[in-house]
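Hello K.,

You asked for the raw outputs rather than the summary table, so here they are, unedited. I folded two proteins back to back in the same session to keep the settings identical. This is the first:
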Amino acid sequence: MKFRSLGVVAVALVATSAATAQTVYSNGPIVTHPGSGYLGADASALELTSGTFGFTANSAALPAPGFRVADDFTVPCGQTWTINSIKGFGYQTLTSAPATLPPTSTLNGGNYRIWDGPPNQAGSNIIHDFTGSNQFVSSSFTNIFRTSNTPVNGGTRPIFDVVMQGNGITLAAGTYWLDYALSATVSGGPFVPSISANAPIAPVGNAVQFLPTAVAGLAPGYWSILVQGPVQVGIPFEIDYSVTLSNCWDFTISQPLGGFPNPTLLINSGGAPGAVYFNAITLTAGNFPNGYFYGLDIPFTDILAEASLGPPFFGVLDANGQASLSVVLPPGFTVYYVGLEIDPVTLTVKNVSGPKTYTTI
């Protein structure tokens, strides 16, 4: 968050919230055939036309870079998460199936980092990095075997979870990327299966894999995880977190009734009744979304002018914590904007929505 002034209003982030119970986020299931796997366990069957059982995510040489996998997750508006633990999933291909269940886990390590954007996209940053040491807490059998699609009772790929320390990380509302790798007591892998709840067709996702060296003509770096055709898929993980709730403040510009000449709606919502809102809007992209004013590169003279004009730029939220205005804008009209909720007594910014962009149709 950047510290800026709005006329005579001091801008500082103030949050009012209440803690709720601990909960778990799952990035997606991997069971395709409950109870139909080896010795009555669950099966995670391979996609119909794919020969890829899983994706290497090997950090055996900590902290040296190895193969890694990453996928995104979202902290919803109005929530702040404190991470208690992170759970990854992996397997190794055994020479023979275990005689009984549960098999002993062969996984003994894991590490992770969290990005503020896609790891394969310029401008994304690592905001929490725990790759320099083993974050391992425990590992156990998930009662799932990764198998071929026919038959689905293979027993040489038992999937284990790896619980890693949460390190007290706090994440405000937004979309993040968990990037993790595992290590094992024996050679081979570990491999992470794709999310595959509806085999034989792979569900669409957007996970990526880090290649530390050139592989199959691909240069070192992050590449999309692909199966079937190819289809980009997701990878599984769980986040155990405690959540703190606050107002779900949002400022949106949209055309729910269609394009011109239907009105464009400017709506503030989720604020405190009687709070002050300020919507900074500019037509200049500048270095959006990394400008000086909460992500906008807006001329300061425009900020002062908008603050003096009243709605839709400046006003007071109604009894429902909302404010809305409709205007008619021509098609192809691009605006860049950010909305602030301001405490009317302390004159401090409580919540920020944006920066965002919208082009009229």
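The second followed immediately with the same parameters:
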Amino acid sequence: MSGNLLKVLCVDDEPRVLTGLERHLRKRFEVFTAPGGVAGIDLMTQHKDLAIVISDMRMPEMDGATFLRHARATNANAVRILLTGQADLTAAIKAINEGQIFRFLVKPCPPDLLSTVMDEAQRQYELVTAEKELLQRTLLGSIKALVDVMTFANPAAMGRASRIRRRVTAIAKEADVEQRWQLEVAALLSQIGSLSMPPGLAYKRASGQDLDAEEHSQAHAALKAANSVIAQIPRLEPVSQLLDHAMGFSTDPVVDPAMRRRIDVLRLGMELDELESRGSRVEAALDNVRNAHSHDAKVLEATERAITNSGEVLRRAVVPLAALQPGMVLDEDILTHRGVLIAPRGCEVTLSFLEHIRQFSGQLEKHSTVGVLEPRRAV
């Protein structure tokens, strides 16, 4: 089956109806069928890229409205269509309210009408997914640029944010976490509160040094205040929620399992980076975190895979400062000859980064080299 075809799930307890739908739709879509709501939910879990979900209303065990409500929670992007043999206003209202359906059709549905509705559903799906992708790319790109600039003001703190972003992105990919852009943005903004801290305190936090009670209180207040600002930005409410729970600002229960998984990934990434900042190797840091028994087992397994696979993606090299190129990641700090931090370990090399380094060329050794991580070249 061509990978270019959109995926459609048809759910009905009547085999002849499923056969008819599949026969009518298979030329244009990759069609999956399920004889009931439970089987339909299982298929939605396996195929998270479903574009359109069609469900009968009157089914044993689980009616169509209930199933479509689950479908909405599992795959919010999928366009939902309800079929019923009952022209029942009550059923239609229930389905619309609970499942937010796109269309309500009465069986038997004429083929021409079904084709028209499927055309509209396909356009709706493409519109929604394109808009979300554009939003996420634009938002993430803007925040990356913002953090890139802020790195010059506080290289230690923003370098830590960049390291956390790479770690949680790798873990989330291995754990098949949805809405990964939220994690990336949360990681990038996790240290923004450091900009309002005294320089000495910000540096101690970023380098993993112990803080006394007063310093801890001051840092906590700065980070919490920064996150309150993030919460006021449209589209960043879930990012603020992630940070609230990962940093311990909120202890309110989280109902959504997917959000709980994202919180766990972010918290784990932050804990690992703090331990590494204190001098632990990443494998030892993971053992330390695992022994605390405070994280989901599947997230820990995904983290171990991410750490193992990172060596397959990047290789370490030592290059002259003049040979730094965009896409490389610093594997050690860049310091002036007086020991002033210019760029921290974990910072990604960008064009603005290179311009920043050139401004300090007179304060660096002429033949200085730096350890970097760079993409492996294809053989």
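The longest strand covers residues 50-56.

Happy to rerun anything if the numbers look odd on your end.

Regards,
P.
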